[in-house]
Amino acid sequence: MNNIGVKPLGSRILIQVQKIEEQELKSGLVLPGSNAPGDTHKADVVAVGPDVENVELGNLILVSLFAGDGVEIGQEQYRIVDEEVVLAVIDR
């Protein structure tokens, strides 16, 4: 089990989405991170259910912006997604 005490069921995966960085232009204008529909997020895999086949604990994955269900554990925000919504596993 992981150190946060949550074990996803079935083919579900507990992820922590990486923060979207702001971008400051040379002119001083600050652009917020993009949240446009169709965007994707990189996320760290925190825990995997027993039926997950293609994703492992510690992987960096790519998921759709609104994939899964949000959950707060302690003071941290996580998402629980089904393995089917994982778009890619990213090499670190």
Topology:
Elements lengths: L11 E6 L5 E2 L5 E2 L8 E9 L11 E5 L4 E5 L2 E7 L3 E5 L2
Antiparallel strand pairs: 1-4, 1-7, 2-3, 4-5, 5-8, 6-7
The CATH topology: 10 Kd Chaperonin, Protein Cpn10, Chain O
- Please give the CATH class: Mainly Beta
CATH architecture: Roll
| Count of separate DSSP helical elements | 0
Helix content: under 10%
Strand content: 35-45%
Q: How far apart are the termini?
A: 23 Å
* Name of the CATH superfamily: GroES chaperonin
Largest sheet: 6 strands, antiparallel
- Output mean pLDDT: 85
State the domain count.
1
In N-to-C order, the SSE pattern is: EEEEEEEE
Question: Using only CA atoms, what is the Rg?
Answer: 15 Å
Instruction: Return residue spans where pLDDT drops below 50 for at least 5 consecutive residues.
Output: none
Class of secondary structure makeup: mainly beta
Q: Name the overall outline.
A: elongated
Spatially, the strands of the biggest sheet line up as: 6-7-1-4-5-8
DSSP, total strands: 8
